[in-house]
From TrEMBL:
UniProt keyword annotations, A-Z: Activator, Cytoplasm, DNA-binding, Phosphoprotein, Transcription, Transcription regulation, Two-component regulatory system
The entry's DNA-binding region: 137-237
CDD domains (UniProt xref): trans_reg_C
4-aspartylphosphate PTM sites in chain numbering: D55
Residues covered by the Response regulatory domain: 6-121
Species for this entry: Rhizobium altiplani
Record-level Gene Ontology MF annotations: phosphorelay response regulator activity; transcription cis-regulatory region binding
The name this protein goes by in its record: Regulatory protein VirG
PANTHER family registered for this protein in UniProt: DNA-BINDING DUAL TRANSCRIPTIONAL REGULATOR OMPR (PTHR48111:SF4), REGULATOR OF RPOS (PTHR48111)
Start and end residues of each OmpR/PhoB-type domain: 137-237
C-alpha cells in the first residue's frame, strides 16, 4: 500500500490548525492537529509522523522548547518546519539551532507551506549520490569518534552514543567523504541538499555549528572542521574505515 505522509501540526491558533489541515488533506497528506506541547507528547507517545509543523509562539512550552525536546528524544529524526509571527533573522537562527529544518513566518500562504513541506521531506529522504547506501554498515573513525553509518550516530572513545539529526548526519558524511578539501557553502548545499533548499545563506553555517557541538569542537580552535576564511570549511582529520559488526 502506498505510504501517505503524516503531518502533525502543533499550533494554539484553532483557525490556523483548521485552514492548514484542510489544505494539506486536499493535497493528499494525512494530517493531525493539536493545540500544545502536552497534546503533542500524548499523540507522539502512540503514533509516528513524517513531519512536524511547530508554532513558535505558544502558551506554556513554546516551539523552541518543544523542538529541543524532540531533537533529544526518540523522534529526533523527524523533520520540523517552524511557524512564527516574528520575522527577525535572530529568531530564525535560534529556531534552526534548536533543530528546525525550515522556518516560515506568519502570515504565510498554505501553498508555500505545502512546498516547504515537500522540499523538507525530499531533502530528508534524499542522500547525495556519494552517500547512497549500497555498502555494508561501516564505522568511520576519526580522532576520538566513530560514525556508525547504519545507526547514523556518533560513538566516542568511551562508548557514549551521540544522536544526530538527518541534516547533521548528511553534513558530517559529506565532510568525511571529502577530507582535506575546502568546501564552500554552495558546494555544501549541493552535496547535502541537492540545491533544493530555499533556506537563507547562514543555514549552512548554523548546521556546521551544530555538528561542531556534537563533536565537542571549539569553533575558535577547531580540531575537526576548520574554517577557511572567505572560502568555506575543511575537514582536517584522517579517516579510517572498518566494517560495522
Amino acid at each position: 500500500m502506498e505510504h501517505i505522509d503524516h503531518i502533525l501540526i502543533v499550533d494554539d491558533d484553532r483557525e490556523i490548525r483548521e485552514l492548514v489541515s484542510s489544505y494539506l488533506k486536499k493535497n493528499g497528506l494525512r494530517v493531525t492537529a493539536v493545540a500544545d506541547g502536552r497534546q503533542m507528547r500524548a499523540f507522539l507517545d502512540a503514533n509516528s509522523v513524517d513531519l512536524i509543523i511547530l508554532d513558535v509562539m505558544m502558551p506554556g512550552d513554546d516551539g523552541l522548547v518543544l523542538s529541543r525536546e524532540l531533537r533529544a528524544g526518540r523522534h529526533k529524526a523527524v523533520p520540523i518546519v517552524m511557524l512564527t509571527a516574528r520575522t527577525d533573522e535572530m529568531d530564525r537562527i535560534i529556531g534552526l539551532e534548536m533543530g528546525a529544518d525550515d522556518y516560515l513566518a506568519k502570515p504565510f500562504s498554505a501553498r508555500e507551506l505545502l512546498a516547504r513541506i515537500k522540499a523538507v521531506l525530499r531533502r530528508t529522504r534524499m542522500l547525495p549520490p556519494n552517500l547512497q547506501v549500497s555498502e555494508a554498515g561501516q564505522l568511520l573513525s576519526f580522532g576520538k569518534w566513530k560514525l556508525d553509518t547504519t545507526a547514523r550516530h556518533l560513538v566516542d572513545s568511551d562508548g557514549t552514543v551521540i544522536a544526530l539529526s538527518g541534516a547533521e548526519y548528511r553534513l558530517l558524511r559529506v565532510f568525511i567523504d571529502h577530507p582535506q578539501r575546502v568546501l564552500n557553502r554552495d558546494q555544501l548545499l549541493n552535496l547535502t541538499q541537492g540545491r533544493e533548499a530555499e533556506l537563507f545563506d547562514r543555514s549552512i553555517d548554523l548546521l556546521v555549528s551544530r555538528v561542531r557541538q556534537r563533536l565537542g569542537d571549539d569553533a575558535r580552535e577547531p580540531t575537526y572542521i576548520k574554517t577557511v576564511r572567505s572560502e568555506g570549511y575543511v575537514f582536517s582529520m584522517p579517516i579510517e574505515i572498518t566494517e560495522a559488526r
